[in-house]
Design a protein that fits this description.
Elements (H helix, E strand, L loop, with lengths): L1 H25 L6 H8 L3 H7 L3 H10 L5 H9 L4 H20 L1 H12 L8 H22 L14 H21 L10 H12 L5
Protein name: TetR family transcriptional regulator
Organism: Ectopseudomonas composti
Keywords: DNA-binding, Repressor, Transcription, Transcription regulation
């Protein structure tokens, strides 16, 4: 029983790895489950045993590198005021550094941001991705909406606008660096860019 479970997990990982490589090389829209099965050395039935469809497979691939929101929410809840924003700032910087240090993360985010067209076949994956993005924005908004933080927001900046600004900056940094890593140093330049964003949103930023 244990051996069977281990074999099944190996097959699942092989399918995810094959999908990751083919999505990167061919694009998501031009990669079929048949392509993935052949590349992984398994039957198409084995792919369907582990994944309902291509949208489900794509979603599970993204989940390998997504920031778990529940543990993040717990970390942020443990601090208050500008300390929670400092933690959020540090996580943003860490996320950019991980693009340099983690090859798998770099490949998968390249697929998401540069090799994916959300066709009808991927509608379910698109909806799940949008849900994840909105949950992250909501989590950021909660930090900017703290009673100890709101008085520091610049005039005209609401918690919702602040959270969307931060998210837009992150997506822009990810996309630009993946397009051309020579545009800026993801490890040494990111702190200054993230801090400039927070200084634009807040009257006071350490």
């Amino acid at each position: 029983m244990r051996r069977t479970k281990e074999d099944a997990e190996k097959t699942r990982c092989a399918i995810l790895a094959a999908a990751e490589q083919l999505f990167l090389e061919r694009g998501v829209a031009h990669t079929s489950l048949e392509h993935i099965a052949r590349h992984a050395g398994v039957t198409r039935g084995a792919v369907y045993w582990h994944f309902q469809n291509k949208a489900h497979l794509f979603h599970e691939m993204l989940n390998q590198v997504r920031l778990p929101l529940e543990p993040l929410a717990e970390q942020l809840a443990a601090v208050d005021g500008l300390s929670s924003l400092q933690l959020l700032r540090d996580l943003c910087i860490e996320a950019m550094a991980n693009l340099v240090l983690d090859e798998q993360r770099r490949r998968i985010l390249t697929v998401l941001l540069r090799r994916c067209e959300f066709t009808e076949e991927l509608r379910e994956a698109e909806e799940r991705h949008e849900t994840f993005v909105n949950q992250f924005i909501d989590l950021c908004e909660q930090q900017f909406a703290l009673p100890t933080v709101q008085p520091y927001l610049q005039s005209g900046i609401t918690p919702r606008l602040a959270s969307r600004t931060l998210h837009a900056l992150l997506v822009g940094l990810f996309s630009d660096w993946l397009r051309d890593p020579n545009l800026f140093d993801a490890q040494t330049d990111t702190p200054a860019m993230i801090d400039s964003c927070f200084r634009g949103l807040l009257r006071q930023w350490p």
